[in-house]
Specification:
The protein is mostly helical. Helix content is 54%, strand content 8%. It has 7 helices and 2 strands, in the order αααββαααα. It has a two-stranded antiparallel ribbon with strand order 1-2. A hairpin with a 3-residue loop joins strand 1 and strand 2. The radius of gyration is 20 Å and the shape is elongated.
């Protein structure tokens, strides 16, 4: 894991400000390395508040760490540092998930998707039954 990812994990766990010195001790890094990691997180769009003699606090933003997601998902998670469209990447990932669900039994979740799929049969040539957008809507509503 890269140092900025480790710093993010520490900040995400804290509810109050944490000093750069304490983060540096916990990660066995220099305070300069912590400062560089904070700057990298800010470049990634993470909002971090910094108060002199008090420390850093995560204010807003998420850092997606593939290895942590993989621990909780039955599929491989990949990370694209550069992409033409996150929406297209998400659609592609959901399409792969739908392909995976067909032949595999993953418990209750696939059953819910199978029921959803039964509710959305293909009715005309060229019309999709269960699309990535339908899956996203389903996830957001359940």
């Amino acid at each position: 894991m890269k140092s900025y990812q480790a710093v993010y994990q520490i900040l995400a766990k804290e509810t109050d400000y944490i000093s750069g010195e304490k983060i540096a001790e916990e990660l066995s890094l220099t305070r300069t390395s912590i400062w560089k990691a904070i700057k990298r997180l800010e470049q990634e769009g993470i909002e971090i508040d910094s108060i002199k003699n008090k420390g850093y606090k995560l204010m807003n933003g998420d850092l997606i760490l593939p290895e942590i997601l993989e621990e909780n998902l039955p599929i491989k998670v990949s990370f694209k540092p550069e992409t033409r469209s996150t929406q297209l990447d998400a659609k592609e990932a959901i399409e792969k998930l739908l392909e995976y669900i067909e032949p595999h039994d993953l418990g209750e979740w696939p059953l819910q998707l199978q029921q959803l799929k039964a509710e959305r049969p293909v009715t005309q040539a060229g019309e999709e039954g269960l699309t990535p957008q339908i899956v996203i809507d389903y996830i957001n509503n359940h």
